[in-house]
Design brief:
The complex is a heterodimer of chains A (about 475) and B (about 1050). Chain A is mostly helical. Chain A has a domain of about 190 residues: Serine Threonine Protein Phosphatase 5, Tetratricopeptide repeat (Alpha Horseshoe), CATH 1.25.40.390. Chain A is built from 18 helices and 7 strands. With about 1050 residues, chain B is mostly beta strands. Among the domains of chain B are: about 90 residues, Immunoglobulin-like, CATH 2.60.40.4130; about 140 residues, TonB-dependent receptor, plug domain (Ferric Hydroxamate Uptake Protein, Chain A, domain 1, Beta Complex), CATH 2.170.130; about 80 residues, no CATH class. Chain B contains 11 helices and 58 strands. In chain B, a hairpin with a 3-residue loop joins strand 34 and strand 35. Chain B is globular, with a radius of gyration of 32 Å. The chains are: A mainly alpha (about 475), B mainly beta (about 1050). Chains A and B meet through helix 1, strand 1, helix 2, helix 3 and helix 5 of A and strand 28, strand 32, strand 33 and strand 40 of B.
Chain lengths: ~475, ~1050
């Protein structure tokens, strides 16, 4: 009996005490301890990809940025109800749009982590270019984020030469206490963007790298930043560099509509990569995606945002403009949607093999490089401004055989070409452009001047509770 | 090993019978002279024993010079010498209100009369007949200081239990569950849309008692997990005596219990109100109707869009309540056996429960089985084992969300009567989108092609051995494995009207395995030295929990009836993950009492947890407590004072972070395009530690005049180093990080009292009540000034943990003037700027009481500007005096027995708190959403120029001014008292049932949530944060049952 007893006791103790070593030392399996996560160049490549995941999300370019660009202005309108963006009804306590700010800073943090940690990686000489490219991408991504923050939260550069408040410049990983620094001016934010791009350009690869920054994307950004700043020479030179020396070409008219389904097509300089596993939102693109809001082709889709009558009317006299075919009509009797009698935008047809909700958001396209070059060229008296504009206009509409390089013509081409890409409002504000906001869908008709406070989004009131150093924009409740 | 088994069997089966004198007799009760059945009769100093039958009669073989020992739970043990007689009768006095009753406490048992900690005991009787799935549902109102709130009226949903307030921001506020001495997995482990509780695995009938440990003296032995109290569950063991088998069956019916829950206006009223909102909009915005020619044409056009006329030739209409809900029928069957002798005991049971919910798609099925046995191998070794197994299947709906899958939302916020149910000619369900806002289709059609279920398997195996070195020194070792398997399934199947969202159908499975192995060994010493009683315990415990999860989902099905992802063609998601955690502990306790008069106890535990960094993971927890049983003092020996004691305790406990690896800096991984992507996942904090609780407790318990029992307690629980997912500046790249920050206090009073109004042989009437008041206050965050806005709440120094924070609604502008931009008839909100005391104000500031601080003068105290403003110009602020935590809560019960009839009634109540009725944004939106939705009765009779005294704002389709949005308009008083349970039970006369060889037979009728006294616009029984968002309210259930023992 005693023998049995001792066996039981020994067994119990043995079971209990085995495993005692390391009993309390555990590690997660769904994430990696930070020290081990950037140990090799391959790891760094994975972390570089990590910089881009948020940008495509519905809280950034997957939806909100498009609303900020096109719904705030005169290209898109809610088909029913209202969007606070449409009527500039945002206030500091309506926080949903502040995720834009947050997500840009999260992306900056990811870029900063690479900039800080990649140096210690020792790589063989034949891999140095890859390492350089990774570092260059981190600088370029950071510049891209700062530019968007300045666009959203600062006044247009030219209204006050960048005197208004812009981004908070965070250029290395920071602790919660170090992070609470005041905003810099728009001018200083632009300076930082220029510095980052200047650092990035010599490091970046010139090869096509779909979904990632390369030399040409950084050059494009340089052009666009310069255009916003009024530096036409730089804008012209940089965009011409992309047009002439980059590996991109305008897609011919016959393939143009279908090219929107093509990942990394010839015209796309920089786009976000989505698929079912890395979608625009947590719901495979069904809930938050902007394309969901616009699309009408399925019973489940909303088309809660439709093109304005103003935009549709741009095609009234140009029946052969292929971009006019983006206007779909949901016929009350035979429409493919819900028979609502609504016009909707059928530009974003979904990546090949996926539904219309899974579109790679396009951040930079060659067509826009032409339009930037044309505008900067026109402003600085370059002789090829008209021919650059014609490339874009004629590609879409063979009836156009010549076009004058005027601001009006450039403006119309920009509207026709770039709808749904989130540029319009910023485009208007950077040059104090005029627009009419008076769509039958919505009686709201106010238009903003570039000096209006509502051009700048409010800083979240909640954020300012924990981060009082972050100044509120003028015109909003402190 | 074989030998052990044989011995065990022999012990269970054999009864030792030696040829001796036959002694018979009757045992009666001193109080009423009635016979006492089931009394254990032993020959002193031997193992010979017997039991009294139903008539109190026994027979036993005993030597003529022997002494018989009569013992029974609830009675004082009596010894009577045989003295050569053949008939020995005994009279037993009932144990004075169970003072010497043994209660289960941390790592052992204690006599209730001497226990110095604060513990509430809920006995089997209080839960046995209630129509419940889990015992947790029956705890509401039963114990002072303990709140129990169901998350949902869905069968089997989780119950939130809180003990003495709330101590944590971001770590757990739930108590630790300990089953038969071993910490157990608890909570809701399903990831699906259905709320479920891991505690559902226990059939309430298998529970002997529940002890809720409340103060440090009671709970500190559970160390780093004890801050929120400990729920000790003791399951039934075999009772000495004949093998008794019991069969119990019940059938019940449920439906909504609270009539006032979200009342809506009629269809006709709804239409008139919607018309009004379009008309008012058109009048204010001529551009809206100009293209229609006239306001009337505009209004007609909009109404036609959202309010199509009934078309009886084409469609069938149906009352959506009847389409979606039903009377839920439940059935419950149980069979158990129990018996044993001094060699061994056994209890075993099987039970089956089947419940159809009130929502037609809700269903719960549960099977449980348990075996609990022990054998005494010899005088120094006892072995025992417990096996508990349960299998549960729940089918249900998404609860508590504004979601198509939530029938409560569909019924209350989406459907109006004129939504067609089916096509007239074909009878097929109408599946077109009716309201474009919600893209919703007939939910009946949806639910047909939907899977939303959760399966739960749980097995607990425990083995223990107790080695008695002497009668006062014992070693007990326990090894336990608790295995919980949860499988959720969700599918919008091929054929689902909404299936296009996922191609042709979607099906996904989520599996989770949680295995907790606990080993503990304790050495117990317990000895009387004359009047000195000393006991001590030392031990250790190791706990390891392994978790693994698996998810798999596919879309695009080809076969209409396919339910499993194997039939799908497109991969959607599929991955597995796992983690492990460990806890090592050493523990000890010692107590001493002198002459059952003075008691002192100390406890100690040292815990090491894998959730913390190596340098900070070990911590010590301790308590000291004492009792003075003053009624034992000679100078207080009053005849009316049956018992009285004062007790006090002080000690520490903790709460570990919920996050297993929260202290580490990690990189998270996901995907970008087709490639992998990684990024920093958190801000590391290697200083992370547990929350520290310092508790003290004083109490007075007394019984007087043999009739009145009461208990008063005051407690103070201060928590420091609170685990807080503290918001950090967005420029860190994160929104929050886990820190130990700040402190909070919960202090309050607990009162409970009961009176035996009638105490007679055939009749008893006892009335009891308890009341608790918890004052909760955040003492500090990382600095005195810091404040955190956590959704609807405001965490800041001096405020309640559940202080509501939103825009302050000031009512309708009833004047004919526009006030600060608010037009007549529109809602006004407080402007809300904060001014510190002494600050020179930059505008006229209206104080809470209406007085005005003129521009340029100094603010008299810290406060907010209550000047009226438009919603857009209003700021959120803590709403004065409005919080989700009740000012008081408790229960009230009546127990009545008359002969064979018993009647019990249990009420619970809660008052002084508010509920956030978030549904108001949909159904009481002042007309700004005009999509053919139901409208709350609160919206009746809105402001118009001729009805300018209305408290309901002008109805207008314009979200610039109207609308609910988040504001104090959503906060409503939640005071209620509810008849939680009522049961009537009749035991059939023994003489009658014995004719059928039945030992005992009983029929009962039991009801839950029968009556609610409240003014609240939604069912007031919701979880502690007071947030209501279309959850299933509590159900009224009637259940009829029968129990027969053989």
């Amino acid at each position: 009996m005693k023998k049995i007893l001792s066996i039981i006791l020994v067994a119990v103790l043995a079971i209990s005490l085995s495993n005692c070593k390391g009993f309390l030392d555990k590690e997660p399996t769904d994430s990696v301890v930070a020290e081990n996560a950037l140990a090799t160049l391959e790891d760094a490549g994975v972390a570089v990809n990590g910089m881009y995941t948020l940008l495509k999300y519905y809280t950034v370019f997957g939806n909100y940025m498009i609303q900020m660009g096109d719904l705030r202005a005169d290209l898109l309108v809610p088909s029913e109800g209202n969007y606070i963006v449409y009527s500039y009804d945002y206030d500091p306590s309506q926080n949903s749009y502040f995720t834009l700010w947050r997500n840009f800073y999260t992306t900056i943090t990811r870029a900063n982590a690479i900039i800080k940690n990649i140096d210690v990686l020792e790589v063989p000489a034949d891999k140095q270019a890859i390492k350089d490219d990774y570092l260059g991408q981190a600088y370029a991504v950071r510049a891209f984020c700062y530019f968007n923050i300045a666009k959203l939260y600062g006044r247009p550069y030219k209204v006050d030469s960048g005197a208004s408040l812009g981004a908070v410049l965070i250029n290395e990983p920071v602790s919660p206490s170090e992070a609470r620094i005041p905003r810099s001016s728009v001018a200083d934010t632009y300076k930082q963007i220029e510095t980052d791009l200047a650092t990035a350009l010599p490091l970046l690869s010139k090869s096509k790298n779909t979904g990632h920054f390369n030399y040409w994307a950084a050059r494009f950004l340089q052009a666009k930043v310069a255009l916003y700043k009024g530096d036409n020479e730089t804008a012209y030179t940089a965009s011409k560099d992309v047009i002439n020396n980059g590996p991109y070409s305008l897609i011919p008219r016959s393939q143009y509509l279908a090219s929107w389904a093509q990942v990394g097509n010839n015209e796309s300089i920089f786009e976000g990569l989505v698929n079912l596993q890395s979608a625009i939102d947590g719901d495979n693109g069904f809930g938050g995606s902007f394309y969901y809001s616009m699309w009408f082709g399925y019973t489940n889709c909303g088309a809660s945002i439709v093109p304005t009558k103003h935009w549709r009317d741009l095609f009234a006299l140009t029946p052969n403009d292929i971009r006019g075919q983006w206007i779909a009509y949901d016929d009350p009797l035979s429409g493919e949607g819900k028979h609502t009698g609504e016009y909707w935008l059928k530009k974003f047809i979904g990546n090949t093999g996926f539904t219309a909700f899974l579109n790679n958001p396009r951040y930079m396209r060659l067509a826009e490089a032409y339009l930037i070059a044309a505008e900067a060229g026109m402003n600085s008296g370059k002789s090829d401004a008209a021919s650059l504009l014609l490339e874009v206009a004629q590609r879409a509409d063979p009836d156009v055989t010549s076009i004058a390089a005027t601001m009006d013509n450039i403006d119309i081409q920009r509207q026709k070409e770039l709808i749904g890409e989130g540029d319009r409002f910023f485009d208007l504000m950077r040059r104090n452009g005029t627009y009419v906001k008076n769509d039958p869908h919505n009686p709201f008709s106010t238009v903003l001047k570039w000096s209006d406070d509502r051009v700048m989004l409010p800083i979240s009131a909640d954020e300012r509770i924990i981060y009082p150093e972050l100044e509120q924009n003028p015109g909003y409740k402190q | 090993m074989k030998k052990v088994l044989l011995l065990a069997l022999a012990a269970l089966i054999s009864t030792m019978a030696l040829a001796q004198n036959r002694v018979t007799g009757t045992v009666t009760a001193k109080e009423d002279g009635g016979p006492i059945p089931g009394v254990n009769v032993m020959v002193k100093g031997t193992r010979t024993g017997s039991f009294t039958d139903e008539n109190g009669k026994y027979s036993i073989n005993a030597p003529a010079n022997a002494t018989l020992v009569f013992s029974s739970v609830g009675y004082t043990t009596v010894e009577v010498p045989v003295g050569g007689k053949s008939v020995v009768n005994a009279v037993m006095a009932s144990d004075a209100i169970g003072l010497d009753e043994t209660i289960v406490v941390a790592y052992g048992t204690a006599k209730k009369g001497s226990y110095s900690g604060s513990a509430a005991v809920v006995k089997q009787d209080a839960i046995k007949d209630a129509p419940i799935v889990s015992f947790e549902q029956a705890l509401a109102g039963k114990a002072a200081g303990v709140q129990a709130m169901s998350y949902s009226g869905q069968p089997g949903s989780e119950v939130e239990i809180s003990v003495r307030g709330y101590g944590s921001f971001n770590a757990s506020n739930k108590p630790l569950y300990v089953i038969d001495g071993v910490p157990a997995t608890s909570g809701d482990w399903s990831t699906g849309n259905i709320s479920t509780s891991a505690m559902n695995f226990l059939n309430p009938s298998d529970i002997e008692s529940i002890t809720i440990l409340k103060d440090a003296a009671a709970a500190s032995l559970y160390g780093s997990r004890a801050s929120n109290g400990v729920v000790l569950i003791t399951t039934k063991k075999g009772k000495e005596g004949d093998l008794v088998s019991t069969f119990k069956a019940s059938v019940g019916v449920s439906y909504f219990s609270y009539k006032k829950h979200m009342e809506m206006v009629s269809d006709a009223e709804n239409e008139a109100l919607q018309k009004m909102s379009f008309r008012n909009y058109a009048e204010a915005n001529p551009s809206a109707w100009s293209s229609y020619g006239s306001i009337d044409a505009y209004v007609d056009n909009r109404m036609a869009k959202y309010y199509p006329a009934f078309d009886y030739d084409k469609y069938i209409y149906k009352d959506w309540e009847k389409a979606l809900f039903q009377r839920g029928i439940s059935q419950n069957y149980e069979y158990s056996i129990s018996g044993g002798n001094d060699k061994g005991k056994i209890y075993a049971s099987v039970a089956y429960t089947d419940q159809h919910g009130v929502v037609k798609i809700d269903y719960l099925q549960r099977f449980t089985a348990t075996v609990n046995g022990e054998v005494k191998l010899n005088k120094w070794l006892k072995l025992g084992g417990i096996m508990q197994y349960s299998w549960q299947y729940q089918d249900g709906h998404q609860d508590g969300w504004s979601s198509k899958d939530n029938p409560m939302f569909m019924w209350k916020a989406v459907f109006i009567d004129r939504w067609p149910y089916a096509y007239k000619a074909t009878g097929d369900l109408f599946e077109e989108t009716f309201s474009t806002r919600f893209n919703t289709i007939n939910p009946v059609a949806q639910y047909k092609h939907q899977i939303n279920d959760a399966k739960q398997n749980r097995t607990i195996l425990k083995g223990w051995a107790e080695l008695a070195f002497t009668d006062y020194l014992k070693l007990k070792t326990t090894l336990s494995s608790d295995w919980l398997y949860v499988h959720d399934k969700f599918g919008w199947l091929y054929g689902h009207p909404n299936f296009t969202a996922y191609g042709t159908g979607y099906a996904s499975d989520k599996h989770r395995n949680i295995n907790k192995v606990v080993s503990s060994t304790t050495l117990n010493f317990d000895k009387m030295f004359d009047v000195h009683h000393v006991s001590a315990m030392v031990g250790w415990e190791a706990e390891r929990e392994k978790f693994n999860g698996l998810r798999l989902g596919k879309t695009d099905f080809s076969y209409l009836g396919a339910t499993e992802s194997v039939m799908g063609t497109t991969f959607d998601e599929g991955y597995a993950w796992s983690h492990e955690e460990g806890l090592l502990s050493m523990l000890g306790s010692a107590s001493y009492d002198y002459d059952s008069k003075y008691y002192i106890t100390g406890t100690f535990r040292r815990d090491g947890s894998s959730r913390l960094a190596p340098d900070t993971r070990w911590g010590n927890f301790w308590s000291v407590s004492g009792t003075w049983r003053f009624s034992k003092e000679n100078f207080l020996d009053f005849p009316w004072l049956n018992d009285g004691k004062i007790r006090g305790s002080y000690g520490t406990s903790g709460t570990l972070p919920s996050d297993l690896f929260g202290y580490m800096s990690v990189y998270d991984y996901s995907q970008y395009g087709e490639e992998g992507a990684s990024y920093p996942g958190n801000i590391a904090n290697t200083d992370l530690t547990w929350e520290k609780n310092k508790n003290w407790n004083v109490g007075l318990d007394a019984t007087i005049f043999d009739r009145y029992t009461f208990s008063v307690e005051y407690f103070n629980r201060k928590t420091t180093d609170l685990l807080l997912d503290a918001s950090v500046a967005s420029t860190t790249g994160f929104s929050s990080t886990l820190m130990n920050k700040g402190s909070m206090v919960n202090r309050g009073w607990e009162l409970s009292a009961s009176v035996d109004i009638i105490k007679q042989q055939d009749m008893n009437l006892t009335v009891g009540a308890n009341w608790s008041r918890v004052h909760n206050e955040v003492l500090k965050l990382s600095t005195d000034d810091e404040a955190i806005n956590a959704d609807w709440f405001w965490w800041a120094k001096g405020y309640n943990f559940y202080q509501f924070y939103t825009r302050q609604y000031l009512g309708v502008n009833k004047s004919s003037e526009t006030i600060n931009g608010v037009k007549p008839g529109y809602p006004m909100y407080a402007e809300g700027s904060f001014y510190e005391k002494g600050e020179i104000v930059d505008q006229d500031v209206v104080l809470r009481d209406g007085t005005v601080v003129p521009d340029g003068s100094a603010m008299p105290y810290d406060g907010y500007n209550y000047a009226p403003a438009r919603r857009q110009n209003a700021s959120s602020m803590p709403i004065h005096g409005v919080r989700a935590m009740p000012r008081g809560f408790g229960g009230f019960n009546v127990d009545f027995r008359w002969k064979n009839l018993t009647f019990n009634m249990a009420w619970n109540y809660k008052y002084g708190h508010y509920i956030c009725n978030s549904t108001q944004d949909e159904v009481a939106n002042d007309g700004y959403r005009t999509f053919g939705q139901p409208i709350s009765v609160k919206q009746r009779n809105p402001w118009t120029p001729s009805n300018s005294n209305s408290d309901v704002p002008m109805r207008i389709y314009d979200n610039n001014q109207g609308g609910y949005y988040n504001s104090s308009r959503m906060l409503v008083k939640g005071d209620f008292a509810r008849l939680k349970n009522l049961s009537v039970s009749y035991t059939l006369p023994r003489e009658f049932v014995q004719k059928f060889s039945i030992r005992n037979a009983r029929v009962y009728l039991s009801g839950a949530n029968l009556l609610t006294i409240s003014k609240c616009e939604v069912d007031p029984e919701i979880q502690s944060d007071g947030y209501y968002n279309y959850g299933m309210p509590a159900l009224r259930t009637w259940s009829l049952g029968l129990e027969i023992s053989f």
